[in-house]
Design a protein that fits this description.
- The chain contains two helices and 14 strands; from the N terminus they run αββββββββββαββββ.
- The protein is mainly beta.
- The protein has one domain: Jelly Rolls, CATH 2.60.120.
- A hairpin with a 2-residue loop joins β9 and β10.
- The longest helix is centred in the N-terminal third of the chain and has 21 residues.
C-alpha cells in the first residue's frame, strides 16, 4: 500500500512540475525591452537585455508599425543616463508599436532623446503618445520636456491593463515625425 501511495505522490509531483514549467509567462513575470532603431540586442548596465528593433506582424511577438530607423553612433553624447546606447538609436515616423503580452497589468516606460541634428531648438518635433488608447503624453516636445537636446527623457505609465493579449502604443504626429529610442514593458 505504501509503495502505491509513494508512486502516486511521485507521479503527481512530476505532473505538477511539468505543468508549472510549461505554463505561459504571467503578466507579473513578463519583461520586454526594445532598443528602438538598433539592429542587434543590447545589455544595459543593470544586466537587462534589450531586443533589436523590428517590424510588427501578428504572431511575431512585438514590433513597430511603419516608420524607419537610424543609428546616430556611439560618438553622440547623451546626458542624464547610465546607458547612452539606448538613446543613440531611434525609430521615427511610426504609427504604433505593438507587443503581444499575457493579459494583466503593466508598467510602460518610453525612452526619448532629441538627437536629430536639424532640430536645434524646442518646438519642431511635437507629437502625442497613447498607450492602450489612453493619452500618455500630449504635445510631447522631446527637447523641451528633457530640458535640452541630447538629454534622456523617460515617460512612464503604470497600471496599463491588457485584456486581449495585445499592448499598443500609438504615436500621433503634430509637427515633424514622432521618434522614440527605447520601450520597456514590465509586468506588475
Amino acid at each position: 500500500m505504501k509503495t502505491r501511495f509513494g508512486f502516486f505522490v511521485t507521479a503527481l509531483v512530476a505532473v505538477l512540475v511539468i505543468l508549472v514549467c510549461s505554463a505561459p509567462a504571467s503578466a507579473q513575470t513578463f519583461a520586454l525591452r526594445v532598443d528602438a532603431g538598433a539592429v542587434s540586442a543590447y545589455t544595459d548596465k543593470a544586466g537587462n537585455s534589450w531586443q533589436a528593433d523590428k517590424s510588427y506582424t501578428k504572431g511575431n511577438g512585438f514590433g513597430f508599425v511603419s516608420g524607419d530607423t537610424v543609428d546616430r553612433g556611439t560618438d553622440v553624447k547623451i546626458e542624464g543616463t547610465e546607458d547612452p546606447r539606448i538613446y543613440q538609436t531611434e525609430h521615427y515616423a511610426m504609427d504604433s508599436f505593438v507587443a503581444e503580452v499575457p493579459n494583466g497589468k503593466y508598467t510602460v516606460r518610453l525612452h526619448f532623446a532629441e538627437t536629430y541634428d536639424d532640430i536645434t531648438f524646442d518646438g519642431p518635433r511635437v507629437f502625442d503618445v497613447k498607450v492602450q488608447g489612453a493619452e500618455m503624453a500630449k504635445d510631447l516636445d522631446i527637447s523641451k520636456a528633457a530640458g535640452g537636446l541630447k538629454k534622456a527623457l523617460v515617460k512612464e505609465a503604470k497600471g496599463v491593463e491588457v485584456t486581449d493579449g495585445t499592448l499598443k502604443i500609438q504615436f500621433v504626429s503634430k509637427q515633424q515625425n514622432p521618434a522614440i529610442n527605447g520601450i520597456e514593458i514590465t509586468g506588475e
